[in-house]
């Protein structure tokens, strides 16, 4: 049997947000690889081998998937959210570029990415043009993050930030807030959306003036409105109209 | 019974991409409102009234939903893709802002938005920081579109364009391609993804030098890579690493 690799997005946490397409791929898999907490979301069954691995070993995991597919296995790589947004799809193609064997059959299955789940819980803060920025400097220089932030603010994009803050770089998110206050002013709305759609979900919206760095951690997606973003009742939304 | 409004994303077209959460909301609805082709995706059943409406009447539709919810109905507003991305969620909150009655219970249910479905079919072109821009000038001045495009290119975002081209403004997308060639150079990769996940699906990737305006229509999402976006086999991907 020809081996396959399917990169599947599990969505932000709630099982009711896993698409039937992803569910079907998991039902057909012989092997599931991924970061430990994501593999833990896949039910064990006879004929399925689970291969949980640690964080920051994305290329090793992709190569493991390529090796198993070459052996004729039906491999699913699981990501949380959408696999194409700061997740495993790019890592697989990076590994494929260096892969010496024949390429396996590959499919990427989209999922509900964290920023859109967070936006839905908050209202519609991304209802006009917006951007998504990974604030981790693991894979890019910090100067580039600052440069992008300023240009995004000058373009008046609404913004979504992934990986806003980790224990190893707590000062960087403070710097992000400082830049945003300079570029967008103190009254701009910001939403901290933690562990969206899970039992730990917590949303908090305020102005940039009121925001402090410790409001974000690695389970938080941060949404910043554009100049027109406002509240209606308990909701936050960005009007469709601009300029 | 208290009325409710649920704004639900149906995804890009394939029924296997409709989340169980959205399916359940549709099963419980007494009324479904939305643009004609989206309401056509909802199966008729006893106890459910379908209210299809024309395009560009988003506020009328939102007010209709508010009126029915005030009468105790369980209303679902359907959007294609994700309701928070250039769709009905913002329109509902705009209508709610002007609404005189008591506010109904509201829920926004995310869906697979077109750019992420298109990216998955192409590979992982949005695998690094990216932005989403609605190229229609119905709701914003064209100058703002051009300004945003240039800043997005200077920030080296990968880009997704919704509503790239309509019969009423065919020249504007030609101008977009011209600006992109100026800012990103002729070799930058661009993907035209039409009617993704439907029987009419058609994907085409090329360089900006090779792209022509008529490759896009209103059923197309256009994806533009960043400076590092490249091909591997038949796939297009943006590496996670930058700078």
UniProtKB/TrEMBL annotation, chains A, B:
Pathway note: Cofactor biosynthesis; adenosylcobalamin biosynthesis
PANTHER family (UniProt xref): COBALT-FACTOR III C(17)-METHYLTRANSFERASE-RELATED
E.C. numbers: 2.1.1.131
Designated name of the protein: Precorrin-3B C(17)-methyltransferase
GO-annotated biological processes: cobalamin biosynthetic process; methylation
InterPro entries linked: 4pyrrol_Mease, 4pyrrol_Methylase_sf, 4pyrrole_Mease_sub1, 4pyrrole_Mease_sub2, Cbl_synth_CobJ/CibH_dom, Precorrin_MeTrfase
A GO molecular function held by the record: precorrin-3B C17-methyltransferase activity
Annotated Tetrapyrrole methylase domain residues: 4-211
UniProt keyword terms in alphabetical order: Cobalamin biosynthesis, Methyltransferase, S-adenosyl-L-methionine, Transferase
The organism's place on the tree of life at top rank: Bacteria
